[in-house]
What we know:
Belongs to the aldehyde dehydrogenase family. This protein is α/β, with parallel strands linked by helices. 37% of the residues lie in helices and 20% in strands.
Amino acid sequence: ALRTVLKTKISLKTGRMCYSSSSVPTIKLFIDGKFIDSKTSEWLDIHNPATNEVIARVPKATQEEMVAAVDSCSRAFHTWSETSILARQQVFLRYQQLIKDNTKELAKSITYEQGKTLADAEGDVFRGLQVVEHACSITSLMLGETLPSITKDMDTFTYRLPLGVCAGIAPFNFPAMIPLWMFPMGLVCGNTYLLKPSERVPSCSMLLAKMFQDAGAPDGTLNIIHGQHDAVNFICDHLAIKAISFVGSNQAGEYIYERGSKNGKRVQSNMGAKNHGVVMPDANKENTLNQLVGAAFGAAGQRCMALSTAILVGEARSWLPELVERAKSLRVNAGDQPGADVGPLISPQSKARVCSLIQSGLEEGADILLDGRDVKVNGYENGNFVGPTIISNVTPKMKCYTEEIFGPVLVVLEAETLDDAIGMVNGNPYGNGTAIFTTNGATARKYTHDVDVGQVGVNVPIPVPLPMFSFTGSRGSFRGDMNFYGKQGIHFYTQIKTVTSQWKAEDATLKSPAVTMPT
Length: 519
Ligand code: NAD
């Protein structure tokens, strides 16, 4: 049934919402269970990053449309929060199956708008799907606590209850996974949800919304608006919105954290990164070099967990030429082309920024061992391609080290000892992810204990936690105190009510008012 609906309403081939008869399709809003045309006069072009052709247009929703979306969430909250937890669980059980059945279609839409390879796009869907599968365990995850007999005839118990309307503001780099970190966790707890996808990759969210509706989610439980700053400000300011999940850059994340918090909302803000891979000389060389290259250049380096910085310790410094050879073997191509390893960057502006950061390294005295700036991709001459690039002799003060590059660029530093490497990692402002490559347990243990980073891998280059854990982050990579998904995600999207009750026999009735604090 979903396929039939999708075929008539959404192009499965491209993942776009195709209702318009104009040559460039337009993206709908999803308000109160309906996919509707925006009445806005302001539209943004969406480009295929491999060609830079305009493939769709996304509206900047009007104030009236955004208000209608929140009002819909507010109305739906009354019934959805009272819907039995077993009924909510059933919606998510159907939802996970629909996502599974349509993974390839979702992946196509991701590659078309975001640029990553099809295989990687399927991984994007799969990692989001895991969160939906985890949400299906809500009947255990939302259990409260009880403590009987805290005094005579008196028991205390807690409920975990939804907050109300919650909102998510998503980035461009994981069009499926990150929206799926957000609204399923919020909704399964009994909240209703307003999602603002990245204006650069909105189609995947629209497909996910359609599937959610087809899974039986009542109208108004999930609403989707599109836009940029005005939509973000609207979310930060609207009184009915109780919590905001944000993932994206520091510039936006710190702003949203501050503005949302000032308005009394819970905010969790996952932001930028500079992830270090520390290579010890005792590491398994073959494995380490392959892992490093995959994690630095996969998704064209546009992952918040990309290993964008290598620290070669001691004798591992001599591995550099082999690292370069492996990086050279990666194939740069449009994401839908067979054998593509590295797709395009999201925009020409992003490519220009990445290229200027590479240039800054050269100007500050680093060496460019592999330069992907002039890469040519046959048939895709207008795409935003940058080939794998390796910059060595980098020092911590250089701009290519202090700034998040977010492209297929690996900067390489050197250290004499493990302690020196730990000092560098902890001296960097970001604390998102890191990995150590070693065959020595004591080295691994020291590293995992001493680094101040949210996600640590030991011989695991991209240690994104499975959803029974939580995705964390420290220092400049995170604002807030409750993380995404896992137990912490449930805590973020619920509040606790504590009930203390006393049922006693009649002969124990108080004979006079109790005016002192009970002890
Ligand atoms: P971005 O900050 O440009 O956009 C994210 C969202 O914020 C979008 O919906 C956008 O419309 C909105 N936005 C953008 N600029 C804004 C501003 N000035 N004020 C208010 N709202 C604004 O991020 P992006 O380029 O889409 O994503 C890449 C960034 O996301 C990278 O820095 C990456 O490290 C980070 N990221 C972090 C994680 C994590 O879990 N830590 C995961 C994925 C991506």
